[in-house]
Amino acid sequence: MSIVVIGVNHRTGPLALLERVNLRDDAVPKAIAGLVARPNIREVVVLSTCNRTEVYAVAERFHGAYGDIRDFFCDLGGLDPAELAPHLYSQHDEAAVTHLFEVACGLDSAVLGESEILGQVGDAWELARAEGGARSTLNLLFRHALETGKRARSETAIGRGTASVSHAAVEMAVERLGSIAGRRVLVVGAGDMGEGIAVALRGAGVTDITVTSRTAERAGALAQRVGGCVAPFAELPARLAQADLLLTCTGSGETVIDRDMLAAGRAGSGVPMLIVDIAVPRDVAGEVADLDGVTLLNLDDLRTWAARGEAARLAEADDVRAIVADEVERHAFESIARQAAPLVAQLHDRADGLRRAELARYESRLRHLAPTERAAVDALTRGLVAKLLHHVSVRLKDDAGTPQGERNAAAVRDLFDLG
Questions:
Q1: Domain spans of the chain, in order of start
Q2: Residue pair 141/56 in contact by the 8 Å Cβ criterion
């Protein structure tokens, strides 16, 4: 068996491709169920964000699992294998573990060190556990990934400064406009990204913030948090006329604002508008950029902008990679120890079965004992079994994953008839 990761991210594929393979949250359970039903895959976690869609799997056979996951991506995006191949990456075993740990630390993000990815990794794991996709192997892996991401942020300054896509979007707008204090700002989307945008806007001195979302309750709560106002989603076209800065991140999976809507909303307005669309798939149709006075920026622009500001955190990257290497080694040791655990448990079960059988055989001689005396006999025999097996158990765990460990395991199975 191997741990594999196969995916497409912002380094290997253009935004248009990432949009085609992006999964809405409500589509992930079906994806997990479909993948674990394939014969070459035992466990699976699907991580789909604005910067990546990746499948982490425990594979019975690597090449078979690769084919299954490649076909999954092709079906998801309506892609031909030849069209997908140049953008699809795959890694297995230690390289796959290293990749996930670097993702959790923010080393593989468009904004180096960004903090949102750690929560997204945790959410992907929790969903896979709930859907039966993640079991012992991937549970261990993702637990270590979260620990590694937290350690990187507590022991280094990798997350200092602009450390989220939503905050970066606001900072890019500030750079483009010179200042956004006093601007009339419309935020479309009230999820995690929308919350990050609204909070960053407030921190940048914006006092005129309107929030709209299909989920009215979340929009209201977010508007109240930042001292803004909420607008019904049905009023979006009219609200476009009242904003000179628009930031959108709905995650709706389809175009929310098209050219006709914006043109109608801005009819007669001579005020320039800056739009920052960080949704995947994009919320705003590309044709909007053709309108006079409208500037449209998306994730491609954000990545270019963020690349210029990485220098301050690049010095921390080497320290984070050292942490990743240390945690990858720790994961390997724990994985190896777990390989011996089933055999050790089987050995103890066999020995305890023999102990209980012997006590039953001597039942007639023990019948006269008081309950406290029977308990003492039971404790005594349990203790003897534990002591006799202690050294064997320790050796099996210590030598697991080595040729000597394989010989020890084979000998124990033969000597105790464990099959």
A1: 2-161, 165-302, 335-415
A2: yes
